[in-house]
Each structure stands twice: as structure tokens, then as C-alpha cells.
Amino acid sequence: MRKDIHPKYNKVIFYDASSGYKFLSGSTRSSNEMMEWEDGEVYPVIRVDISSASHPFFTGKQKFHDVGGRVERFKQRLASKNQEG
């Protein structure tokens, strides 16, 4: 195998500023911004726009669209066609 073709894989902190949630994981991305983690080590920080702590699906604040209207309209059309014939 050729050497030096793979990106460097390091531990980084992913930080969701909207919720204050952060987690430590491995990534090939890096950053100049550094933050101290719970273990006392300093790691690069990758800021993310959304995480499981702020995503509507995971927080239970997701809005469901009413699809029942389409089903009701279909049933009405079906019923009217059955009455005609």
C-alpha cells in the first residue's frame, strides 16, 4: 500500500452551540479552535448547526403534516364515481 495517501484521523469535539451539546468523536476534519474535554485533554472543535439535541425529530417537537385530507378527498371521489355508475 502507498504511504501518506490517507487523511489524518484525530479525535475532535463536535459542538452544537444552539443547544450547548457537545460530543467527542473521531474525524478527518480539523479546526484551529480548541476546547478542553472532560478528560482534561484539549481537542479541536467542529461547530455543527444541528445535532440530536436540537433536531426536531429527536426532541419531539416535529410538526406532522396533515395527510388525512388527501385520503378523504380520494374516498369522496371514489364514492362519487361509484354512485354515478
TrEMBL record:
Pfam families: Ribosomal_L31 (PF01197). The keyword Transmembrane helix does not apply. InterPro entries: Ribosomal_bL31, Ribosomal_bL31_B. Part of the 50S ribosomal subunit. Belongs to the bacterial ribosomal protein bL31 family. Type B subfamily. This is Large ribosomal subunit protein bL31B. PROSITE patterns: RIBOSOMAL_L31. Keywords: Ribonucleoprotein, Ribosomal protein. It comes from Paenibacillus brevis. One of its GO terms (cellular component) is ribosome.
